[in-house]
Amino acid sequence: MKVKFSGGLLLAMAMSSLVLAGCVGSAAVIPPSRETPPPRSPAGSVTIPIGEPVRAATPAPQGVIDPGFRRPPAGLEQRIFELWRSFPGKTGIAVQRIDGEWTLQQRGDELFPQQSVSKLWVALTVLDAVDRGALTLDRKVSITPADLTLFHQPIAARVRAEGSVTMSVRELIETAITHSDNTANDSLLRTVGGPDAVRRFIAAKDLGAIRFGPGERLLQSGTAGLEWKQSYSVGRAFQAARAALPDATRKAAMDNYLANPVDGASPSAIARALTRLARGTLLSPQSTDYILGVMSRTRSGPNRLKAGLPSGWKFLHKTGTGQDYKGMTAGYNDIGIATAPDGTRYAIVVMLGSTTASIPQRMVLMQAVSGAVAEFHGR
């Protein structure tokens, strides 16, 4: 069951949840001196000239100026700032009006672990190759037990049962994005030319502060302090090996990852990339429509940003969730495009680089951010 709240009530819920977090023990909140900078005035709003929309929202009647086109609605920036300031941990937020000229942000230019958010860049790289004629969506890809990864990979059961599975590039994109399947994503990555191909795409499209890591297996094993072994793809072998490590090894690996995430990206760069994707300036019209349709079918994170939007709004997105270490999660994210009933679109990015807040508290924060965008829309 999905319950909708007004932006004001979501803000109150977020604040109440954070007060409660402080009552359940010191482990529930990261000390401000380590993770959260001192409060500052909400100076995160900037104007970015990004040209005329390729696919504009429903235009205002002739002679009527849309008040939200050139600057954020009054009050939205302060609301986002208060939510950001009050949440424990390293938090980054960016909101950009796709059919407009503004963005607002908190910690928007810092790098945050992407985790499965980076699957979007793999899919875009593949579709760019399709646009150039280097690949087709119908190309067949074989997946064997040697290709399996770890964590969430629903495809693995079929591969082990059948010995190998053959899927089209189209099927792999659908599975990687909508189910966040790690093996499907790594199979796409292998097919398109590996991590360097994705990095070349990011650089060629001038997407800015978006890194791409070494692939799921090396990313996760490195974050844990392990060297990858293919045996880790079976059952919970990876978790067992990780648990057997000395705590100092795990802590050092996690600290290194958080300090300089190999898959790091800034919320603002991601918001700009989503804006360009929605406007149709990254891929062909056919590929743009295709990937936006796929993202609209994402099944992960139904209670993150999507749940904060009222009835009549549409949302397409990609989530990302990192490993836990002693109650702290390294990367808990949701990025997407929200469309109001009148057709106006917003890129919304919330990235929790490291937090010990409970999962319900994280969801309340994300719902409060998207709910605020909806509440202030049209003001």
UniProtKB/TrEMBL annotation:
Signal peptide boundaries: 1-21
Superkingdom, taxonomy of origin: Bacteria
Reaction catalyzed: a beta-lactam + H2O = a substituted beta-amino acid
Enzyme type, top EC level: hydrolase
Transmembrane segments: none
EC number in record: 3.5.2.6
SUPFAM superfamilies, A to Z: beta-lactamase/transpeptidase-like
One BP annotation, GO: response to antibiotic
Keywords assigned: Signal
Keyword Signal: yes
Domain Beta-lactamase class A catalytic: 92-351
Recorded GO MF terms: beta-lactamase activity
Sequence similarity: Belongs to the class-A beta-lactamase family.
Protein name per the record: beta-lactamase
